[in-house]
Amino acid sequence: MAGQKNDAAAGEEKEERVVKHTVKDSVFTSLFKEKRYLIQLYRALHPEDTETTEDDLKDVTVSNVLVDDIYNDLGFTVGTTIMLLIEV
Fold it and tell me: Rounded to whole angstroms, how far apart are CA atoms 55 and 39?
């Protein structure tokens, strides 16, 4: 009987360890849809560009219209530069 309880407890532990990638993804995409956070991300990636403002950022995230999903997690342009961030 003690072995059965340990097996059941181990099964419950496995269920608790399941990571919900969609939750992390939705937090990421929701956060960087706001330009005030997007400019912070851009400046962290390109600290040499001190002249770019929020108005210079343009969202180019590609949505999948058939299944209500997105193809890339985050896409934006700054001038002639296109930045695509994709979770693999």
Answer: 9
